[in-house]
Amino acid sequence: MRHNLLITFLSFLFVIMLIVACDEDMPSVDDPANIDTLEMPIDTISMDTLSNSIDSILADITDVSFSGDDNSYTFSATILSPDVDCDQYANWWEIVSLDGELIYRRILNHSHVDEQPFTRSGGPIEIVADEEVYVRAWMHPTGYGGKVFKGSINSGFTAYNLPLDFALALGNQEPLPDFCLY
Question: Are residues 94 and 16 in the same domain?
Answer without folding.
Answer: no
